[in-house]
């Protein structure tokens, strides 16, 4: 348990450059308080102590301004920065290393019981005020722009912005991934090219030989016919 608490505190330092000391992080980060309360509420929920779980989640909301349903499943190193106005629904599932900003809603669109909230992969960032609705999947490493409304699945690594969410090109990605173990060998490429050209020339030569051979035979036959005629 202490390992998890320490990991949560380290996550705040990793995610927020404004974090200065451990005491400050423990006392002044509602996102941290919210996830700690949620862990308690979620374990009670799993032990079927549903009312107590809801009560803790409700107190969590009063204390932090963050509403996480105790049924929501949340992975490790999860961080909500600032936090106010975040709503995470009952059947939401969140992977590891996910970062949410204030005002994010992972909500449902259906009134049916059962899975109706988003599934968020690992390493996802959801900008402030973004809303993801329905039982959609947000792929690993995806980034959702602040203020976006996402109602369709988001592929891995995609950046989605706007209303409705549209995928935009990630300008920070390198134009070409250099696989250093798989670099092209220019010498081999040059030899391959020379051998291909040689093959083509040999083929052309053979065709010419066949053509000129046939022509020579035809000439010979024509000469023979002419001499016979005389
Ligand atoms: C989505 C996000 C991660 C993209 O960042 P990025 O990769 O640096 O993207 P860029 O700034 O290069 O923008 C790419 C395109 O998306 C547009 N865009 C970026 N964020 C947008 C947003 N929230 N809404 C609408 N369009 C947006 C840009 O205008 C740009 O469009 P263009 O290609 O037509 O010029 C970032 O804009 C974002 O919203 N991060 C959330 C941060 C946050 O909520 N912070 C809160 C701190 S309190």
Helix content: 40-55%
Biggest β-sheet strands, sense, barrel: 6 strands, mixed
Instruction: Estimate the mean pLDDT confidence.
Output: 91
The fraction of residues assigned to DSSP E strands is 5-15%
Strand element count: 15
Low-confidence stretches: none
Radius of gyration: 34 Å
The CATH class designation of the largest domain is Mainly Beta
What report would you give on this structure?
The chain has 230 residues and is of the alpha/beta class. It has two domains: 2-168, 3 Solenoid (UDP N-Acetylglucosamine Acyltransferase, domain 1), CATH 2.160.10.10; 180-229. It is 42% helix and 15% strand. It is built from five helices and 15 strands. The protein has a six-stranded mixed beta sheet. It has a five-stranded parallel beta sheet with strand order 1-4-7-10-13. A hairpin with a 4-residue loop joins strand 14 (159-161) and strand 15 (166-168). It is elongated, with a radius of gyration of 34 Å. The model has no long low-confidence stretch (mean pLDDT 91). The structure holds coenzyme A. The site of coenzyme A has 15 residues, from strand 14.
Summarize the topology.
Elements: H1 2-15, H2 22-28, H3 30-46, H4 50-64, E1 67-68, E2 73-74, E3 79-80, E4 87-88, E5 93-94, E6 99-100, E7 105-107, E8 119-120, E9 125-126, E10 131-133, E11 137-138, E12 143-144, E13 149-150, E14 159-161, E15 166-168, H5 186-229
Parallel strand pairs: 1-4, 2-5, 3-6, 4-7, 5-8, 6-9, 7-10, 8-11, 9-12, 10-13, 12-14
Antiparallel strand pairs: 14-15
Bound molecules: coenzyme A.
